Amino acid sequence: MDTEIVTTATEVVTEAANAASMFGDITFEPMNFVSNLGYMATGMVGIFVVIGAIILVTSLMNKISTKNK
């Protein structure tokens, strides 16, 4: 077997830890997801309102610009 290709699990974990340390202190905190749900809901409502406004303006412009036959 080629020794360059074979790596141990310890080496893989060490490399992953070194890569994570490049980005600072990375921690897994699930409560941050729960605390951000309000922001995500606000963003989704905003997207819904903007799409609704685009639909209303488009349909209004369509009714105004069409000629009655």
Question: Secondary-structure map with pairings?
Answer:
Layout lengths: L8 H13 L8 H6 L1 H29 L4
Q: Would you give an account of this structure?
A:
The structure is a single chain. With 69 residues, this protein is mostly helical. It has one domain. The chain has helices spanning 9-21, 30-35, 37-65. The protein is elongated. The N and C termini lie far apart (81 Å). The model has no long low-confidence stretch (mean pLDDT 82).
Summarize this, please?
The chain is an all-alpha fold.
Number of strands: 0
pLDDT average, as an integer?
A: 82
> Unreliable runs, pLDDT <50, ≥5 residues?
none
User: Percent helix among the residues?
Assistant: 55-70%
Oligomer: single chain
Q: What's the number of domains?
A: 1
Total helices: the number is: 3
Our measurement of the CA-to-CA distance between the termini, rounded to an integer number of angstroms, reads: 81 Å
Radius of gyration: 27 Å
Structural class: mainly alpha
SSE topology string: HHH
Strand portion, in percent?
Answer: under 5%
Q: Tell me, what's the shape?
A: elongated
Main β-sheet: number of strands, strand sense, barrel status? none
Features of the shown structure:
single chain, elongated, 0% strand, 69 residues, mainly alpha
